[in-house]
Structures are given as C-alpha cells and as structure tokens.
C-alpha cells in the first residue's frame, strides 16, 4: 500500500472534473462541501451538475489545456483511453489525478468522509472495496457522534456517583450503559479482579480500592469517604464493582453514606458472578424437574456456612472454606456424592470448571482455588440426570 492518507487544504485551489455523467455528479456531491472553485469539462454535462452554482461548466471535448492551473483532477469519463490520457497530462504537469476507472494507478484516492461538529475522519480501503468502506465509515460516524453526545451530557453529571457493576471480570460482559459512563467519568474507583488494560482506554483518573482477603487497599469507610470527596469536588464519579453492586458488593452501604450527605447516586446493574459462572460452566441454577429454587451465600465466616432451603446454593468467595461448607452438608445428612461445581476465575481466559462431590471436597481431595464460585446442587450433573431419564 503506497497511498498516504492526508488532508489537503483546498482554499484558493481549483478542482477539475473531466467528464459530465453520473460518476462526475457523484464525486461533485462530496467535493462541493469543501470547495466552491470547481470546473467540469465534458461535451455533455448532466443537468444536476449544471444546476450547481459552485461549478463552472465547460462544454467541450477534453484538451490538455483544460487542466492548466488545476490543483486536483478527477478523470471521470466513460473512456479508459481518455482517462489514461488525462492522467498522463496531469503527471507531466505535476498535478494529482484520480482515475475513477482505475484506482490502482491513480495519483490519489477519494476517502469516505465522516464529519461532525468537532471531528473529521477519512476512511480508505486498501483494496478499493467501496461497499465495505461505506459501511465502516457509517459505523465509525455512529461511534463518533455517540461519543460527542456523551461528552455534551457529561456537563449535567458533575457531582454525581454511579455505582456500576462490571460483571465477573471479562470486559465483554460489561453493560453498554456501564461502558458509556466509564467514557464520561472524571474519576474511576475500581475493585479487584477488573481488567486494568481495559480501563486504560478511559480518560478519567483511576484509583484502585480493591479488597482481597488480608489485603485491603482501603477499608470500606475510607472508600465511602473518597467517593464523597470526589463527588463534592464536582467530579463525575464511577465506582466500578465486580459482579453486581447489590450482590455482596456493598453498593447499598456506599449509596446510603453518599445520599446521607446530599450526593446523587445511581446504580447500574452488572452480571452477577454467580450467574456468569453458572452459564459459562454449563451448570444451570434451575432446571425443570431437577431444581426450582436457588439461593446465594458468601463463604466468608462460619456464620455463612448454613445450608439454605433451596434446591441449588451458590457460594461467593471463600475458596479456603469450601471444604467446611461441604462438611456441613454431610453433617446435615446430604449424601457423599451430592454434586458440587467449582468455577475458578469465571469469564477469564484461564477459567477452570471442576465437578466434584461434597465428600471429596470435605476430605480435601479437591482444593478450591481463589477466586471461586461454588455451586452445590443436582443441576451440576444435569446432563447425566437427563440421560438416565431417557
């Protein structure tokens, strides 16, 4: 690819179109946005071209003298031989020429243009695939206009805090609303297990406030206060949380603290890690004829080890305590082969799924790795159950 994409200053420059048919008319539609100094040379010129006040029409067969003094030339005739002659004449005079019938030998290409209030972008196809170029330019224009609109709306968001669920960790599972708010944010406070490289694309300041067992970058009361101070200073704040803000995410604590101090707060849901882990591990949390109820618990602390009255139980966090939960199931009379699914790093490229039993887990024949979601229930083996029913 030897074509260099550049922008040309057309102020005071004269542009020539040699040819007066539909190809020239199409070229003219884009050119008149940037120049009112255009001449069209052809024995027959389309009515729509003649009607344009920005165009000087010369109704004559092309002669080399017609390109004298031109800055750019578009060879738009329906004759390849004439277009080749126009190009040769232009090259001898140091004039750039675009041949509409042969892009490969042209002196320059016309780009698909995207223009907004603040930006202009040009798209070129290496292989001159017009349809693909047009589609791509439309997609990029939509993207740019959306971003411009978000920046305009940002002025109304100063001093507000958004508690945004990032999902289980894979950025592809972040909601569209969450991604838009990250783009608008002045400052982003983010949790552990979130994709740092993904966050680097956003302009806002980034502050890590994650908490891991035995290693809290900030205590909860400190997080509450830094959110308040950032919002009070007039910044648009995104508090980015793994999973969903209201499922073991302390989102309600942060909202209560902020609203008590007059700060506007909004929740943005995220995909809970339990829902994501189950889906990605092919472990339904409910299944007709096997399980019709599900409960969520945390494996932090022995008070959390109780067995809920549901067909399926999901435990967040606490990989080091999964064997104790399994032991509790055994003590409550569950059979040794009662199924357990352990999903390590759900949604990440190195996700691992282990299907085991409460017996093996209790005896530490299987050791859960952190971070893990533990799923206890017969749906873990739903495929085997369905096969036996056939």
Mean residue pLDDT: 91
| Multimeric status of the protein | single chain
Q: Give the spatial strand order of the biggest sheet.
A: 3-2-1-4-5
Taken from the alpha-carbon principal axes, the silhouette is: elongated
Q: Which structural category do the helix and sheet elements fall into?
A: alpha/beta
Q: Distance N terminus to C terminus?
A: 61 Å
Taking all Cα atoms into account, the compactness measure Rg is 32 Å
Please report the number of helical segments: 12
Q: What are the segments in which pLDDT stays under 50 over at least 5 consecutive residues?
A: none
The major pleated sheet works out as: 5 strands, parallel
Q: How large is the share of residues in beta strands?
A: 15-25%
Helicity, as a percent range: 25-40%
Tell me the total number of β-strands: 19
Topology of this protein?
Elements: E1 15-18, H1 22-31, E2 38-41, H2 47-50, E3 55-58, E4 72-75, H3 80-93, E5 96-99, E6 112-115, E7 120-123, H4 130-154, E8 160-167, H5 176-184, E9 187-190, H6 196-199, E10 205-208, E11 211-212, E12 215-216, H7 220-232, E13 237-242, H8 251-260, E14 264-268, H9 273-280, E15 294-298, E16 312-316, H10 322-331, E17 339-344, E18 352-357, H11 358-362, E19 372-376, H12 382-389
Parallel strand pairs: 1-2, 1-4, 2-3, 4-5, 8-13, 8-14, 9-10, 9-13, 15-16
Antiparallel strand pairs: 6-7, 11-12, 16-19, 17-18, 17-19
Helix pairs in contact: 4-5, 7-8
Can you walk through the features of this model?
This protein is an alpha/beta fold and 390 residues long. Helices cover 31% and strands 22% of the residues. The chain is built from 12 helices and 19 strands. Strands 3-2-1-4-5 form a 5-stranded parallel sheet, sandwiched between helices.
């Amino acid at each position: 690819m030897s074509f260099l994409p550049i922008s040309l200053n057309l102020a005071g420059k004269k542009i020539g179109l040699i040819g007066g048919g539909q190809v020239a008319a199409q070229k003219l539609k884009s050119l008149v946005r940037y120049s009112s100094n255009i001449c069209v040379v052809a024995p027959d010129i389309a009515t729509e071209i003649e009607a344009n006040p920005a165009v000087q029409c010369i109704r004559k067969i092309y002669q080399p003298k017609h390109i004298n003094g031109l800055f750019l030339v578009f060879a738009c005739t329906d004759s390849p031989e004439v277009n080749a002659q126009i190009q040769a004449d232009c090259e001898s005079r140091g004039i750039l020429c675009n041949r509409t019938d042969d892009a490969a030998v042209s002196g320059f290409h016309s780009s698909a243009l995207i223009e907004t209030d603040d930006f202009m972008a040009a798209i070129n196809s290496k292989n001159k695939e017009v349809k693909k170029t047009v589609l791509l330019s439309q997609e990029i224009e939509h993207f740019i206009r959306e971003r411009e609109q978000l920046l305009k709306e940002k002025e109304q968001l100063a001093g507000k805090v958004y508690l945004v669920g990032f999902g289980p960790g894979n950025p592809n599972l972040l909601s569209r609303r969450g991604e838009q708010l990250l783009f608008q944010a002045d400052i982003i406070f983010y949790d552990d297990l979130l994709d740092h490289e993904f966050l680097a694309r956003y302009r806002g300041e980034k502050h890590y406030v994650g908490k891991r067992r035995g290693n809290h970058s900030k205590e909860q009361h400190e997080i509450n206060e830094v959110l308040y101070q950032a919002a009070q200073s007039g910044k648009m704040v995104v508090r980015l949380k793994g999973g969903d803000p209201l499922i073991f995410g302390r989102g309600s604590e942060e909202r209560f603290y902020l609203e008590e101090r007059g700060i506007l707060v909004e929740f943005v849901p995220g995909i809970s890690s339990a829902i994501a882990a189950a889906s990605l591990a092919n472990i339904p949390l409910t299944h007709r004829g096997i399980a019709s109820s599900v409960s969520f618990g945390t494996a932090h602390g022995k008070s959390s080890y109780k067995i809920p009255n549901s067909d399926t139980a999901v435990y967040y966090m606490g990989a080091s305590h999964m064997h104790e939960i399994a032991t509790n199931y055994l003590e409550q009379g569950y059979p040794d082969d009662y199924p357990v699914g352990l999903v390590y790093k759900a949604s990440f490229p190195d996700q691992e799924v282990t299907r085991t039993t409460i017996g093996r887990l209790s005896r530490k024949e299987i050791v859960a790795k952190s971070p893990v979601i533990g799923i206890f229930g017969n749906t873990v083996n739903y495929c085997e159950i369905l096969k036996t029913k056939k």
